């Protein structure tokens, strides 16, 4: 079975502050090492569970965070940006399941470490079909359109709960308990890696047994984003077929999940250009 792994940073054990997640931060180098080692734990677990090959996508920020010299050599890596499918670039028919490692709660969540959806500086809330959708849901829908189920989500207790609510039968591994947006009770990085390894092995074994179903929300997909201010919405409205729904909200009727990702990318890049 081919296994796909998307790795973010905010949900990694020990990470609680933007100083750890931004390249300019004093603690960034340490956090990217924790991220790399949790990715390795997922790779190891995937092979233990029966994977024949593993593709890892660096899904955080500028998507050049994983330390490639320290990445498990059995895995291939998708690195850098822009990527047309962003956090699930490289997903394709033939993969048996996807694992989402180091994920975080969606924008506007309570007790979610560094909660946001795609670009927190400009996105206040994201909905699809009138329902709050976080990155787990949107990326799972892209995978689901190709017939690929998400088998594992790891992070804090809030993203794990959101994953179960959205995806139903999915393995989750909680590596920390968010207290507020910037504080958590966390496993040590070493202990977290062991939990992730075990969870990945269990998830892949279950995927091989057909335990998970692809996430396929009904089409078309009505995307709506509340931006942090009207200037962001002004910029997003430049994308053709965007519907301005209020002073700060834009909507888009997308034919599929891949289009949702691309519209969000275009909107947020344009919106970010207005930030001063």
UniProtKB/TrEMBL annotation:
Zn(2+) 2 binds at residues 8, 60, 104, 135. Keywords: Metal-binding, Zinc. It comes from the Bacteria. InterPro entries: DppA_N (IPR027476), Peptidase_M55 (IPR007035), Peptidase_M55_sf (IPR036177). One of its GO terms (molecular function) is metal ion binding. The keyword DNA repair does not apply. The active site is at residue 116. Pfam families: Peptidase_M55. Gene3D superfamilies: Dipeptide transport protein (3.40.50.10780). Zn(2+) 1 binds at residues 8, 10. The keyword Zinc applies. This is M55 family metallopeptidase. It comes from Polyangium jinanense.
């Amino acid at each position: 079975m081919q296994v796909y792994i998307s790795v973010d940073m905010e949900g990694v054990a020990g990470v609680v502050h933007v100083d750890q997640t931004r390249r300019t931060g004093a603690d960034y180098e340490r956090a990217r090492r924790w991220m790399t080692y949790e990715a390795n734990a997922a790779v190891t677990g995937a092979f233990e569970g029966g994977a024949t090959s593993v593709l890892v996508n660096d899904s955080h920020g500028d998507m050049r965070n994983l330390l490639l010299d320290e990445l498990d050599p059995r895995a291939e890596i998708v690195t850098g940006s822009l990527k047309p499918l962003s956090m699930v670039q490289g997903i394709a028919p033939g993969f048996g399941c996807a694992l989402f490692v180091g994920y975080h709660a969606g924008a506007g969540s309570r007790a979610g470490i560094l909660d946001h959806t795609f670009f927190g500086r400009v996105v206040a809330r994201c909905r699809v079909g009138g329902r709050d959708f976080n990155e787990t849901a949107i990326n799972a829908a892209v995978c689901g359109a190709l017939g690929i189920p998400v088998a594992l989500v790891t992070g804090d207790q809030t993203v794990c709960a959101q994953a179960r609510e959205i995806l139903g039968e999915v393995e989750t591994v909680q590596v920390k308990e968010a207290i507020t947006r910037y504080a958590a009770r966390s496993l040590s990085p070493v202990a977290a890696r062991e939990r992730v390894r075990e969870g990945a092995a269990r998830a892949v074994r279950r995927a091989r047994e057909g335990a998970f179903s692809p996430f396929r929300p009904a089409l078309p997909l009505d995307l709506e984003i509340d931006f942090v201010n009207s200037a962001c919405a002004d910029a997003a409205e430049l994308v053709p077929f965007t519907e301005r729904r209020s002073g700060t909200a834009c909507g888009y009727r997308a034919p599929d999940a891949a289009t949702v990702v691309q519209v969000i990318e275009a909107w947020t890049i344009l919106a970010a250009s207005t930030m001063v």
